[in-house]
Specification:
Structural class: alpha+beta
Helix content: 40-55%
Strand order of the largest sheet: 1-2-3-5-4
CATH superfamily of the largest domain: Histidine kinase-like ATPase, C-terminal domain
Order of helices and strands: HHEHHEEHEE
Low-confidence stretches: 1-9
Number of strands: 5
Mean pLDDT: 81
CATH class of the largest domain: Alpha Beta
Radius of gyration: 25 Å
Oligomer: single chain
CATH architecture of the largest domain: 2-Layer Sandwich
Shape: elongated
CATH topology of the largest domain: Heat Shock Protein 90
Largest sheet: 5 strands, antiparallel
Length: 202
């Protein structure tokens, strides 16, 4: 599984290199054309105009690459073909619920090479909810929502918010780092932490 952060860094490096190479080459051409033009103002203006056109084109290409990269990390991008409606289940905020949530999510991607990763990431997010949020307090629950499709799955794990300061549940788990490494896309919206994963289906 490709690490999204590494992919983004690589893409940014490629974008920067392409832009700098193009503009640098155009700058050398400009210098040569200005030297050849001498005092001819019309020729010099034409040379500068051509250089400007190259800069504009390079800038457009750079921005297009940025947009493509953002789309690649967007869970709502069409390449993530999952059902529009989520199936949701609530679990008691107890440690034994982690394995139950893990098994439930794995059932949505049977036979997929990504099933183990989906189960592991669900386990990490559920553990985070139980150990480090109000969901882990007496009577607490956490909710798991799954949108699975032909080739992708999105899983949301929503807890009950921050635990009161000073309680045993207060804090933030390190499992989120594991999810960020394994997921194609990983994000958080308040108490909802989610990931998207391509499952290899047709």
């Amino acid at each position: 599984m490709t690490n999204t952060t590494t992919t983004a860094t690589t893409a940014k490096t490629a974008r920067d290199t392409a832009f700098e190479t193009t503009v640098s080459a155009a700058g050398k051409v400009l210098e040569a054309e200005l030297a050849a033009a001498g005092p001819d103002k019309a020729a010099r203006r034409a040379a500068w105009a051509r250089y400007g056109d190259v800069q504009d084109a390079a800038g457009d290409a750079y921005r297009a690459a940025q947009a493509a990269e953002r789309a690649d990390r967007d869970c709502d991008h069409p390449k993530y073909a999952y059902a529009p409606a989520a199936i949701t289940r609530s679990f008691p905020g107890r440690p034994e619920s982690v394995s139950a949530a893990r098994s439930w999510v794995a059932g949505f991607v049977p036979g997929s090479p990504a099933a183990d990763e989906a189960a592991l990431m669900t386990s990490e997010l559920a553990t985070n909810a139980v150990l480090y949020s109000a969901s882990g307090l007496p009577g607490g629950v956490f909710t798991v929502s799954v949108r699975a499709g032909a080739g992708s799955v999105r899983v949301d794990v929503t807890d009950q918010g921050d635990a009161p300061r000073g309680s045993a549940a207060a804090g933030l788990g390190k499992g989120l780092a594991i999810v960020s490494q394994l997921a194609d896309v990983f994000g958080a919206d308040g108490a909802d932490r989610w990931f998207c994963l391509r499952t290899g289906g047709a």
